[in-house]
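dumping this here before i forget
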Amino acid sequence: MAEAFIAKNERDGLSANTIIKRRWYGPTAPKKPLAIGPIAEIHPLDILEAVRPFEQAKNDEKAHRTLQFVGSVFRFAVPISS
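structure:
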């Protein structure tokens, strides 16, 4: 779903730097809790578990931006999965 979101951003004409940054967050977000199964089956606690390692490493900026990216992907997915 994240790749579809980024592809839409490219079609919408977002800057190349923005696309590069968004592509960076895909592999950065830990995949285990987020990439298994349909997006509708991912729960808020799964997302928190995914960013906890960043918080524990005192990398609050990375945790915050990853949460922003994941939230954007979920907002993008809502009309698709409805």
